[in-house]
């Protein structure tokens, strides 16, 4: 697939979320859909949980404090944001920045899986337990972070969410150490 063809398919998928009225109550509360950003033919897809306030305002994932940390982590492994693709499970901001509900994650999961199918990355990096649960259920992030697992031909690497490192400084080094494993996997 070419990059432009992938982008066209991603644009169609984005439009279908709106047409299909996925999570209408959540959509009503949000400013806009936050679908994804980056290279549509990337070897790496990062998956977070849901947009926050800044993401809801801009329409782009990971542009707040967590996004700044993610950019720093990418630079540590010699990558730029343009080199990767980043999205969330839930595509609308939950009110008050609450965790996405099981129903919301379930409603958006087929679209997320289709995003991944279109991009065909070598590795999917889940950021936080909510995104990890979508692909590697019944695991604890505290036990499996930084440990790659292959499922249906795709390597999944569960990592702590950058927000965890922002709120708990002692987790920052763990996140950095886990991040340094990424180049080996690609």
Task: Report a brief summary of the structure.
With 186 residues, the chain is α/β, with parallel strands linked by helices. It has ten helices and six strands, in the order H-H-E-E-H-H-E-H-E-H-H-E-E-H-H-H.
The CATH top-level class label: Alpha Beta
CATH superfamily: Uracil-DNA glycosylase-like domain
Radius of gyration, in angstroms, nearest whole number:
15 Å
Between the first and last Cα atoms, what is the distance in angstroms?
A: 19 Å
Largest sheet: 6 strands, mixed
The CATH architecture is 3-Layer(aba) Sandwich
Strand content: 5-15%
Shape: globular
Q: What is the number of domains?
A: 1
Order of helices and strands: HHEEHHEHEHHEEHHH
What fraction, in percent, of the residue positions are helical?
A: 40-55%
Structural write-up:
This protein has helices spanning 3-19, 24-29, 53-58, 65-76, 102-119, 129-135, 141-144, 162-167, 171-179, 182-185; strands spanning 36-38, 44-48, 85-88, 123-127, 149-151, 154-159. With 186 residues, it is an alpha/beta fold. It has a single domain (3-185), classed as Uracil-DNA glycosylase-like domain (Uracil-DNA Glycosylase, subunit E). It has a six-stranded mixed sheet with strand order 1-3-2-4-6-5, with helices on both faces. A hairpin with a 2-residue loop joins strand 5 and strand 6 (154-159). The longest helix has 18 residues, at 102-119. The mean pLDDT is 94.
What key phrases describe this protein's structure?
single chain, 186 residues, alpha/beta, Uracil-DNA Glycosylase, subunit E, 6 strands, globular
